[in-house]
Amino acid sequence: MIGYILQRSLMAVPILIGISILTFAMMHLAPGGPTALLVDPTISPEAREAFLERYGLNDPLPVQYFKWAGAAIQGDLGYSLIYTGTPVSEMIFSRLPNTLLLMSVSFLLALFISIPLGIQAARKPYSLTDYSMTFFSFVGVATPNFWLGILLIMWLSVHLGWFPTGGVATIDAPLNIWDRIHHLILPAFVLATADMAGLTRYVRSSMLDVLKQDYMRTARAKGFREITVIYKHGLKNGLIPIITLCGFMLPSFFAGSVIVEQVFSWPGIGHLFIQAVFQRDYPVIMGITMMTACLVVLGNLLADICYALVDPRIEY
Amino acid sequence: MFRVGYDASSANQKTPNSCVVTKMTALLEVSNLRTRLNDGQQMLSVVDGLDLTIDKGETVALVGESGSGKSMTALSIMQLLPDPRAVIEGEVRFEGRNLLTLTDRQMRLLRGNELAMIFQDPMTALNPVLTIGTQMTEGLRFHLKLNKKEAVQTAVEWLKRVGISRAEDIIDEYPHQLSGGMCQRVMIAMAMSCEPKLLVADEPTTALDVTIQAQIMDLMQTIRRTWDTSILLITHDLAVVHEIADRVVVMYAGQAVESAPAEDLFQKPLHPYTEGLLGAIPSWETETDRLPVIEGSVPSPGHMHTGCRFAPRCAFAAERCDRQEPQLKELKANHHVRCFLHENKG
């Protein structure tokens, strides 16, 4: 097992290098640069030149890349070009908890809603329950989450006043768990919808297969309640393909959170990333991309480890 | 002890005397069992008016080709049919209680406790992601309300009884680490652990290789002798039947066509179908290049022949067999047959 984890970690190195080169290249292909959006647009050409020179932005791109990479390996992600002097790592780590909170809550939400729904659909395939679940799944997948987010803000927050319109907590209020949860519900739900819908379909087809297996009949022959049979004997088997899927879902959760954080003014990584892209804050863009890439690689590794935990037939 | 014959015909033909005896000794009494499955368009009859009696400590074999309805009979008795829309009619009396009128909960408390079942393919019948220990102890904890330690102890004892020597290790292993024969032993130990009165074995040796088959049959013999368990053995392997069964019921197309004490049936089969089945057993004594076969195959439910269901494949079929359906008749003591050939005898 430990050997496998080491091997996978080593394999991650070329992946991460590839991602960094691609991101770096694409970022510089985009028109404009950090100087275009500096505070004072009437800045003199000499001062602009001095700015570029000072941050090494006049160097050839490969040189710039290696300078960045050399520092990044040592854990130095550089400083923001826009918020001059703020270390990128500090910017990221001050916002990372918010994003991780949002993502993990909506991930759990997606799992806890889609698993029972999918099982229900699998127990009565081609029934009204099954068809209506299929219908709502497709609606869920097809609805863009920024639109759903805005709609829910309009309806539940503005008109009905049930939820705050955005942010992580009421400003200037002392830390209050209920207040945090209250702020979390809408964005977590919106972020969860698309994956929840897809996941329900996968759970359904996976469980449909499991319910037909001989060992389910054996469990019934022992006299257990149907609910015990399904959740104790069926679910663990049905989850095996779902775990792989959860590993794949991680990047889409990151992508989704970029948009949802924007809609709900959620001060997380996604929010920061959008700003950095608009302002061509190169070190911040690189920092966030690399950190996201690391998390995704880690998530997939975690999924593979869980796989072995659930299915004893798999050995690494 | 009395051996009560298989009462083929409906209740009105029973003699009052046999009724009394039946009440005293029969453990399971199935009468006029009809099972219908829904294939999406119509209800198909897979078991059609079957009667079956199993005494305490008796082994009854249910034989027939694939598709004759023998597994469906077993699953109907256990109420484990795969289709929730299936309809089971008739009476399944277990110790006098009609199982078909029990509530779901009452039936669950009997299943796995008083009535246990083992299945055809032990490799797929065990849950691949749960340890043998978990699968063995859960029934004990549920039915006998044992605590974890007691349940593990009982499970280990039973594993040893079925001939697994390293029972303590196997408790923590998963089914994929065991061979097919070992898995079937585990299944038997699991089914027997609550000491059921009736063990339903649905082709327990079919998926195993020949040497293992013999071991498993020996094991079932031992269990039956030691624990006085009644066994309903479903099989198409007549060699197995010869070895272990007290009584044999031959099924064809959802109906019983012959029922007799095992010795009787093997010495003098009466129904042409039984003769055909027995003729298809390879033997050392007669030297033939090819085994005799029964031409054709079992009709599928919904496409039954009018008249005798076996008539299209029967060498002795007369014109009458196509028109009229023969009834099951007792020709001599405990020997019943459903055929016009024997109508005027007995």
Number of helices of chain B: 13
Question: Stretches of chain A where pLDDT falls below 50 for ≥5 residues?
Answer: none
Gyration radius of chain B, in Å: 21 Å
User: Which stretches of chain B are poorly predicted, pLDDT < 50 over at least 5 residues?
Assistant: 1-24
What can you tell me about this protein's structure?
The complex is a heterodimer of chains A (316) and B (346). Chain A has 316 residues and is mostly helical. Chain A is built from 11 helices and no strands. In chain A, α9 (226-263) runs parallel beside α10. The longest helix of chain A is centred in the last third of the chain and has 38 residues, at 226-263. By secondary structure, chain B is of the alpha/beta class. Chain B has helices spanning 16-25, 70-78, 104-110, 122-125, 132-143, 148-161, 167-170, 180-192, 210-227, 238-244, 262-267, 272-279, 319-323, and strands spanning 26-38, 43-55, 59-63, 87-94, 97-98, 115-118, 198-202, 230-235, 247-252, 255-261, 329-332, 335-337. An 8-stranded mixed beta sheet of chain B has the order 6-7-8-3-9-10-12-11, sandwiched between helices. A 4-stranded antiparallel beta sheet of chain B has the order 2-1-4-5. Chain B starts with 15 loop residues before the first helix and ends in a 9-residue tail after the last strand. At the A-B interface, α8 and α9 of A face α3, α5 and α8 of B.
How is this fold's topology laid out?
The complex is a heterodimer of chains A (316) and B (346).
Chain A (H helix, E strand, L loop, with lengths): L1 H28 L15 H10 L6 H13 L14 H36 L4 H15 L2 H15 L17 H35 L2 H8 L4 H38 L5 H10 L3 H29 L6
Helix pairs in contact in A: 1-11, 4-5, 4-7, 4-9, 4-11, 5-7, 6-7, 6-9, 7-9, 8-9, 9-10, 9-11, 10-11
Chain B lengths: L15 H10 E13 L4 E13 L3 E5 L6 H9 L8 E8 L2 E2 L5 H7 L4 E4 L3 H4 L6 H12 L4 H14 L5 H4 L9 H13 L5 E5 L7 H18 L2 E6 L2 H7 L2 E6 L2 E7 H6 L4 H8 L39 H5 L5 E4 L2 E3 L9
Parallel strand pairs in B: 3-8, 3-9, 6-7, 7-8
Antiparallel strand pairs in B: 1-2, 1-4, 4-5, 9-10, 10-12, 11-12
